[in-house]
Each structure stands twice: as C-alpha cells, then as structure tokens.
Fold each of these.
Amino acid sequence: MNLKTCKDMLKKIFLSACIAATLACQASPRVNLDDTGDASGLKPDIQQSIVTKNLVALLEKYHYKKVPLNDSLSGVILDRFIKSLDQNKNYFLASDIKDFNQYRTTLDDDLKDGDLTSLFRIFNVFQQRYTGRINYSISQLNKPFTFNSGTYSYNREDLPWLASQAASDSLWTSRVEYDLLNLRLANTDKGTNKNIPIGTKSPDATDTKASSDETKNIQTLKKRYENLLAQSKKINNQDAFQIMMDAFTESIDPHTNYFVPVRAQEFNEEMARTFEGIGARLQLDNEVVKIAEIIPGGPAFKAKTIQANDRIIGVAQGKDGEFEDVIGWRLDNVVSKIKGPKGTTVRLKVIPAGQELTSSPKIISLVRDKIVLQDQSAKKTIKTVNSDGKTYRIGVITIPGFYADWKAAQAGDPNYKSTTRDVKLLLDTLKQQKVDAVLVDLRQNGGGSLPEAISLTGLFIPKGPVVQTRDTRNAVEVDEDEDPSITWNGPLGVMVDRFSASASEIFAGAIQDYGRGLIIGTQTYGKGSVQSAVNMNRVLSATDKLMLLAARKDPKNKNMVVGSDDAPYGQINFTTAKFYRINGSSTQHKGVMPDIQFPMIFPADKFGESSEPSAMPWDTIQSSTFTPYANLSGVIPSLESMHEKRMKASPEYQYLLDDISEFNKREKETSVTLNQSQLKKEREEQDEKTLARDNARRKLKGLPPLKKGEARPKNDIDFVEDESLNVMADFIKASANNQLTNKPAQKF
C-alpha cells in the first residue's frame, strides 16, 4: 500500500464527496430537520426483527468471548453505530447526539426483543442530515468564493460535534469551496481553466473565457452532488440493517459479522474466487450501469460483443423474457439480474461506449458460465538476483488470500479452486523451471480459510502440527498436516507486512516455528481468532420461517428482501475459537515478528488488531510436540547483518524512511488551506519532489525517466521485494555452505 492510499485510509471522510445543506424545520420534539420532511424514512421489517433476536441468542450462547448483552455493551453499540454513520462528525449536530443518548442503556433490551425502532430512527435522522447537506451544497455553488483565505477541516474525528446549524453551514461552505478549488487546480494542470486568475472570485471571473471555465467547474460539481443525492435515495432498509448489525456484532468482537443476503453471496464468492455470470465487472455511472472490465475467459470475453465502458440499460432472462429497464437502479439489483446459474441465458440492451444514451441499443445474448477470478488467485513470477558473481533464480508466489470453493468440492468437482491446489501447481512449474528458491508474498493478505492455511503449510513440511485452536470450552485441538510428502524442499522465504492477517499469520508462524524458512518484512496484523460461518437458515426455527412465509404474502411487506436459496436470511460469521502457534503463543495483538525486519510505515495503534477496542487479549497455551525442520538461529544474525548493511547503503532505504516521516506528518494534519496560490504551490512542490525521487529510483533500475504529469507504472519498483530477494540469495548461499543447524542431513 502506498503513502497516498494510507493517507486516504487515515482521513476516512465518510461519504466525503457529499456536501452541505440547510436544516430548518422541526421533525420531532427532539431533532430539527430540513424541509424534506421528518425522520420517519426507512422502517425495519419482520424478517430483520426475527433475524436480530436469533443473532442475539446465538452469539450469547456460542460466541468465544461470552460477552453479556447488557447496559454497558448497549452504550458501546450506540457509540459504534453513530461513528459508523458519521465518523468524521460532519453531519450530526451536538443536539442530535444528546438526543440519541436516551438509547444508551436500552439498545440491549431492544436487540433481545428484535426491536430496531431506535436504531432506524437514528439512521433516518442521519439520512435527513446527509441529503440536506447535499442540497445545501448545490445551493452554495453559485455564491462567490475568494479562494484566498481560510481552511477546510477534512478530519474532524477528534473534534467536538458541530454545535449549531450555523457551524455546520460554515463547515460545508468551506467544503464546497475546497471542491471547486480542487477542480480549478486539476483542470489547470490539464491545460484548461488557465484563464481563471489566481484568487479570482467564483463565478464572476474577470473575462468571458474565465467565466466559462468556472461555469464548467460548477456544472461538474453540481452533477457530482446530484448523483450523490440520487444514490442516497436508493438506500434501503437492508443497507441500514447491515450497518446496525455491524455495530452490534463488532462491539462484541471486530471479526464477528452478520451479512444480509446479498452481502453473504458476495462474501462466499470472494472466498471461492468463483461466481456464475457473464464475466464482467460493473460500476454505476450517473444512474447507468457501465461495464468497468471484461474478465478474461468468461462469456462476455469469448463473445467479443461487449466492451469496457459499454452501458447496460436493459436486462431480460432467457431467450424470450421481457426486458426490464434498469436505468436508475441500484448496482446490486442490476448485478443480481445479470448473474445466474451456469448454462442459463441472459439478454442485455447495451449502448456502446461513446454513443449517446438515446442511441438504439444492441441486443446481446450471453450464456452464463462459471467465472474463475484469476487476478485474485495465487500467481508466480521468476526474479533473478546477482550475488558474488553468481545469478540466482527465485520464484515469487503472490497469494492475495486463502480461498477455497467448498461448494464445488462438496459437489465432487475434481478441479475445484483453492489456494493450496493453485500453489502446488505453481510450485511444480517452478521446480521444472529450476528455481533456486521460493519466496511467498503474503503482503496485504488478510487471510481466509483456516484449512487452506494448514494444507498450504503442508506443501513445505513433512507431516506434523501446524496450528492449535482453543474453543469456548477451553478444549485445545491440534490441527495437523497429515501428508508426509513435501512439494518444495528448497530454500523458502515468506514476505509479510502489517496487513498480513489471520490465515497468513498461521502459515508464517508455522514456517517460522519449524525453522522451515525465513519470515521477512514487518510485524503482522495480530488477528488470532477463528470464525465459523453459519447460514441463518439453519438458525431460524420452523415457526420463524412459517411466520416469515406468511408475512411475505402480506402486501405491506412487499419490500421485504428475501435472499437466494443459499442464504435467504443472511449469514453470520462469528468467533468460535482462538488459534495458537505450535510453540503455544497466540498471534492475537502481537502477530508474527519477522526474522529479517523492515521499518514499519503503519503504526500499530492505528492499523492492526491493537487498534480494535473490542479485540481479545494475547495469551499462551502449552506448546505442541513437533520436530523442527531446521534451526535457523545460527544463520539469521549474519543474514540480518548483511541486510542492514545493504539497507544503510541503499537510497531506497532512505526513501522508505522519508515515507515514514511524511506519513507521520500527514497523520497529524487535519485541515487544508483554501488559498489557491498557497495550495497550488504546496502541490507543485510535492509533485516535483515525488517526480525527482521517482526518476532517481528509475535511473537506478535502468528505467527511462517519467515526464511531468505522466503516470508511474504500477509496481514497477518494489524495494521490499528487491531486498527480500537479496536476503534469499544470502540464504541460498548459507544453505549451500551448510550453516543451518539441528538437522544437518536435511540440506536445502
């Protein structure tokens, strides 16, 4: 993750492009709202009520932590729910928060009863504030701005709630000015808006051309705000319910989550790395669904009749089904119409990219198929390293997640997809290509399937324990690799970072405990808990289901969402156990500490398990009985010494330290100037500094320099990987010189 991405994560401006509104009228005795109406809005349905009661009962009985749902937890849930809606304190007023405090000790009882009235009321007040702010933003666009003074506070998380309507108006007026200023500067860089003098008021520029440029900026921003307003109107009670259940479950434990039906389907497809459909990624663009990407190998790719940026305006099922006009629909609703079982037909009305929406659409017929997400699967490359006059070939295997298509496996599909199966094929190929070592890249791998972490470890060790799990009864189970064969017995390294979590930590911890390979990078995330996925269809009683079946027939419940047959009532993933390394140590909070370390950009108190207030503590249990593969303690100090020597001599190391310094500086910033000249100067200086550094790095790599404004190719420079390859070259030499102890006969 680069510095910009991390900075964006830190800011977390909730719905940040959504701007200001005037709030005036009285909606209830307690909350003032704007003239769009009262806070009634969305309402819970009977299915959500029944699901909530069952969730509460399930978690109280089976969750690992056994946290009682009482008045104390009620307050935590309330605070988390409010924060999830308005983390940056941009929308709610202090008077709203004072009003919501009436629920501080009652939400526990409400949830037990399946009563979501209070939470929906809070959500609806937020919706009113939210849409009101957008309307206010639009009303401010034609007012003059000086662009020569003031600041915009983009990070208000640690500030008090807005005290009054006037304070809210002031904040969002500055946000509108900032958005316009951004457009001015961005378009100036592109060669447009060059006629608008620095500091010129908006929209009364000094000449006709300048006025025209500013008018375009205003229209662009107005369109953006109107699009946000349109999207906010599509929010339904399932969206609200998802946020409410997140606030509830994550107050118990950060890794316990309920998924409404559509999210459950998405989660399971992500785990399987497969889905059934046409093989296209879609996005919403001004009320119209646009094809963002065609996935290689899928029906859309093979048909060659639709392309990226084509727009879908109608969907029909089968060869004869009626078309439904999908303009203005929610994206997930359109996706649900296009996806479907393998072998079935879907027809699309498509407006080709570049043509007006009023053009005659093409009718495209596609037969759905199973889509394998190869770009989210394990992949390999071979890198060469020159060291001491010798060239080493190192196979780098990048694993983005621990996935498995259990549904296909249970159906007897011999080619079902999983991390271990994919990596084994890659290792077999790398052996044929005669690599000298393998480096597994688990950076930004957030985990996934526990069984896959165990079986993947088994590709590199003889049979033996991999991880221990302790359940709610304090019973400890040792999970073992029972296959004595080893797919790769050569030198092994594992790259990790602060975002390597859960299953990644199980794998890295086992490799380290066995002395099977080097762990290289930074301290990992520190997630040491195990989640079980339970379909709520298994939890609801027959009486509950009959009640819901009857409720669906009632016209009053016509908007009640019923999920697919797989998860009609959603899915709960909740913590049922804690895992421990075979040495007895939990990875909770502490994670895995690498053998060869790099400076950590991301502070532990901001990123990782340590940043979660509801996280479980670190502890230990008894070690498992296992036989180390090798003892690396004798070789690691020399590898560290060579690593540190290279680091200190490398310009890239200094760049990394600069990044850390810049990150810490940006983390403390909470506002930005609205002075156009000053902001332009700051950005130009930063751009010049970045370009100079990028070109210095490219020169060292023998790459051509970039010109001003030219985008840097993605991942063309990866210092951590480059240095990790150097470490692996040292490791290969140490192995060849038999510097490894404990099992001298087990040479790499």
Amino acid sequence: MNLEIPEIPINYREDLHNLEYLNEADLILFMAGNQFMVIEELLSAFQKKHPEIKKIFYETLPPGLELKQILAGGARFGNMEIRVTPDIYTAVSEEAMQELLKRGLIKEYFVYLHNRIVLMVR
C-alpha cells in the first residue's frame, strides 16, 4: 500500500533537530511532540552512557504526523525529502503501535509511560 508522502509544515522547523545529521545519524528518534521539553536532558544522559553515539537526528513533531511519515516511508519538508526509518518512535496511543505491528513495520512494542490528564478549574 503506497501512501502519499506527508508534508511537514515549514513552521515545524524547530521540531526537526540536528537536520544536518539526517543522512549520517548514529541514532534516529521520532519523539511525540509534547516530549520536546525533556529530550535534550534525556539525550545528554544517554550520550554519557553511550559516547559512541555522536550524531542524533530527532523529531518532536505531532505523533500523528510522525506515524504518517513512517507509513509512507518519508515526508517532505520545504524542498527536501526526509526518508529515514526511526530507531525509536514514541506514540501517544497504543493504536499507532498496533498499526505498525499489523503492517509488519515493527516486531514488538512496549508501553513505557502512562499519563493522566487533570484539569483544574477555578
């Protein structure tokens, strides 16, 4: 099944990190967009334990857009095509992971975090 390659809106430029490593990355991560605030600290700690991993390309796009990118085999951003397979993809729904499993794009997945939303009203 060939899917149309999604377009990453130009205003999402800040969600494409270390784009210069795109074609030579040691590690490629597609992280859910709402995780952007912890990624730098997480990667810093990771690289201290794994100094051989120097070049890391990562996205913090909305997870639905990242899923479309994985399913289509790439995405367009401006005048370039991003055609990479992530080593790690974090989704906000188990259904996304089940879709990848069903299509044979992953062998397994695991839930690493549960989140509960709380709304405070005054």
Amino acid sequence: MDSLPLTFCDTVVSCLDLHHIKLLTLLSGSWPIAATNISRKARELWVRVYQDQEGVWIQVKCEADATFRSCVFDPKYDRIVKLELGIGKLQSATKVSLSHFRKVVLPQFRNLITRCTIFDDYYTGYGQYPHAVANAVFDELMDHQGFTSLKICNSGERSRKFFKQQLLLGNVTSIDACYKGWPSTLQGKVCEVVKSARFHVIGLEESEFRLDFDMVSALFDKCFKGEIPRGFHPIIRGKPSFLLVDFSTLYSEYTASKEGDGFPRFWGFDSGNV
C-alpha cells in the first residue's frame, strides 16, 4: 500500500467526502500526502438555489464557513453538504435560466453532493407557484446516494417519489417531513429509519405522519440495550398514535431512579409527551 503512486491516491481521495479524507491523513505512505494536499483546499459548501415566482430564472449562491464563495465548482476540492431550495431573491447570487440549471448546474451537483442535507421547506405559502427548482432537483438527484438528511415538504408527486426513493436507498439518518398530504404507505419506511443503526433525528410534528408504538419502542430498545454510542443522542418528535400509558411496563425497572446509583437512563411521560 505504501508503494502506490501519489497520482493514484490523489484520484481516489478526490472522490471522498472531507470526513474520510481527514481519516486518511492518519495512515502512512502516499495516502496521507494526497489527503493532506486535498484537505487544505477542500470546501464544504452550503448551496442555495432559489427561483422566481414564474419558475423561469434560477439564482444559485454558495457559502463556505458563512462566507460567500464563487459558484465555479472544482470537483476535486468542493463538497456540497447543504442544499437549500426556495422561492425569492438572493443577494450576490449567480443567475441562470431553468434550462441552464437543468443541463449544466445539476450535473455538477451530482458530482459534488456528499453526506448532504436537503432543505425544501421554503415553499411554505407558495403553493400557487410552479415548483420548478424542487422538481428539477428531485428528477435529477432521485437516485443519488449522497443525501443523509431530508427536510422537505410535500410539494407534489415528485417530492413524494424523491422522499420514498431516498428512504429506500438506506442512507438517510435524519428526517423532517413537512406539511400535509404524505401517503400513509411511507409510514413503514420512516419506521425503518428509526430502527437503523445510524438513525439520528426524526421530526414528524409538522406532517400527518404519526409516531407509532414500533418507532418509539425501537428507540427504547436501543437505549436500554446499550446500542447507542456514548455522546450520541437520537431524537424522535411527533404526535403518537397510541396511548403513552402503553409504556408503563416497558423497561419499568428504569422508570424511577434509586438514590445515589448514578444510572443515567430514566424515562417518563406526561401531558402526551415522552
């Protein structure tokens, strides 16, 4: 492994996200050299893509470390970790046509998105306008493996297909499903995310989804069986579809602390909340 040519290592490292690039700096040989060279110039980008009310013109704005950056991307160094969609005007943004966005910009996004959060909740109150940006993104990136967090509203058939497909891919660890109209058939897919080893946050309070008994008990099982890594705090939020008193006997040995035992894992319920 130490004898691998630097050019080969450089090519491989340029395809990784910044988290894994930094891990490679701990190795020996050509890997840490290539990883160090790339990590010094790496940019983790927050990309905002807003459309006008007619859905004809698109504005693209990039930020890294809360600073405006050029929207000229370099796939060797740039990674998109946040993608925000919306309607309105952006300051200091690059303006392109919808056609150019579809044909030129979106293919670039496909090569840059990694461990990415997608925000689509900025369509609140704009239901009468075409969702040109969202539809274009959902169509082009439907099967992309780089999304780990979804915060999207039900803006139409494409958003529902994108949501379902991303859950099926198995990379999503956090969900915020916004607004009404989500198909009840997706309830089971959301539950599977809670049961996955990498589950982080599920927020269903702004949607018609409900926290069912299987979702919440799956989180309890992880907690009380010691399956949650230290320092990791998974969260589920939403309206339960069951009576919380159903938990009265679940892990009842932990429902009350013993004075001085120092055991940190206790739970209770009150006023409809866990």
